[in-house]
Each structure stands twice: as structure tokens, then as C-alpha cells.
Amino acid sequence: MSELGHLEAILLGVVQGLTEFLPVSSSGHLAIIQRWMGLVPDSPPMLLFDVLAHLGTLGAVLLVFAPQIRRFADRLARECRRGWKGRRLGWRIVLLAIAATIPTAAVGLSLQGFFEGKFNNPFWIGGCLIVTGLMLALLVSLGRARRGWRQFQVWQAALVGFAQAGAILPGISRSGATICVARYCGLRRRWAAEFSFLIAAPAILGGVILKTSDVLSLPADELSSLRWAPILLGSVVSFLVGVIALRCLLGLVRRAKLHYFAAYCWLLGAALLTGIL
């Protein structure tokens, strides 16, 4: 078993930051890299690293979407005032986000053991990467979407939530699955991406809370012996790389280029299924 050092933390931070947002599955890549480095995912350093790295990527979401978050908060505040006579679009988006978050939480919590059991199975990871590539490739067949928030239905938001729950499986990209399903439902490209990352925040935060409980349950002597420097370094790297990757993804979504990642997912999936990796 290898120890988490500074170089390993930097590499894992880069992988986390890139693959959390690019549609290639962060969990699948982290499982592959950790296996290659000889790291144990359930070890105290890796549990804590997972918590802080996800906080780093959550920070990237909040930074990149800060203007939209401010406008959204202002809209909600105006809609709460007496005498508001316009459409309550802000609260409709909140309803859609709740409709997507409920299936994510329900499926994630009820099947947590099943999902975690697949992280050490390269055949599962490879098969799921093939599925991710197929979802991305099918985007080419879609015409120009015209559906906005008012036409996007609650049941369609729930479908996006189920897609996000399925992305707990290593090899299924969270951003890829949610954006693809939202686009299949007719939501415009820009709003599909924004909705994907609107519902990402509670999902990432929920995962952080679960992992934090695992960390806090560790014996005090194991916690006190942790090397914090590489763990914190990896978290900062995941934040910085995540900001860059998220901005790149939004540009690719606007230009309808997500299908470019399909070939990469297929090649990596095939390498895992055939035992090359």
C-alpha cells in the first residue's frame, strides 16, 4: 500500500478537478488512478482527501456560477415581496431542483452499498464508460432545443435526478448524464448545463456529509496521525483545476461539442473491459 504524498495528492486533485466537470466520470477515473498508485480508497487519508477534494470542486461551482446565483437569489427575494405580479419563475426553478434532488438522494442512500461495491471492479467501470460515451454520442441526433424553464416539467426534472443518481456508479459521468437527459427532454443547451450544476451542489454536499461521518468515526489516533499538507494541497488543486474545467465545459455545451468526449469514453472503457488497463 502506497502513502498519499504531495505528488500523489496533486495528481489526484488534477484528476478530480478535471473529471468532476468534463463528461468522463470522476469516480471512474479516481478508482483507476487510486488502483494504479496502490492507494486504498477506504484508508483514513483517502477518506479525508475525498471530502476536501469534493469541497474544492463545490467551491469551483459556486465561484463560476456566482453571477447566476446572485441573480437567482435576487429574483427569489423579489418574488417573496407582497404585491409581486409577475411569474414566479425563481420558485419554479426551486421546485424543479427539489424534484431532481429527491430521486438522487433516495436512490443514492438506498443503493449506497451496491454502488460502492463496483469501485474496485474494472469491468463495471469500463461498461459504464461505454454507456457514458453512448449518451454523449446521441446528442448529435438532437435538433435545436426550444424548451425553457416554463415548459420543463417536474417529471422531466425527476428524470434528470435519476440520471444523477445513476452517476454514482463509477464510469457514469454526472455532468454528462444530467446534461444529456435534460437535453433529451428538450431543455436548451445553456439551461441544461445550468440545471445540471444547480442540482450538483446539494448532491456534492450530501456526499461530503456522508464521507465526513465516515472520517469522524475513525479512531482518534488515526485522525491525529494524518498528514494534512498533501490532503489540503490536493483540495486546492481540485478547486483551481475545477474552475478551469467547468468554464471549458460550459463553452463546449454552448457550442454543442460534448459528443467529442464519446470516443475517449469508449476507448478507456474498451481498455478496461479487455484488461489492457
Spell out the key features of this protein.
single chain; 277 residues; mainly alpha; 0% strand; globular
Number of helices: 14
Give the SSE string. HHHHHHHHHHHHHH
Contiguous uncertain segments of 5+ residues = none
Number of beta strands: 0
Strand content: under 5%
User: What oligomeric state is this?
Assistant: single chain
Structural class: mainly alpha
Average per-residue pLDDT, rounded, comes to: 87
As a whole number of angstroms, the C-alpha radius of gyration is 19 Å
Number of separate domains:
1
The amount of helix comes to over 70%
End-to-end Cα distance: 19 Å
What shape does the CA trace take? Answer: globular
Walk me through what this model shows.
- 72% of the residues lie in helices and 0% in strands.
- It has 277 residues and is an all-alpha fold.
- It has one domain.
- The longest helix has 27 residues, at 228-254.
- The chain is globular.
- It starts with 5 loop residues before the first helix and ends with a helix.
Write the layout of secondary structure elements.
Blueprint: H1 6-19, H2 26-37, H3 44-64, H4 66-79, H5 89-110, H6 112-116, H7 122-137, H8 154-166, H9 174-184, H10 189-198, H11 200-216, H12 220-224, H13 228-254, H14 261-273
Helix pairs in contact: 1-2, 1-3, 1-13, 3-11, 3-13, 5-8, 7-14, 8-9, 9-10
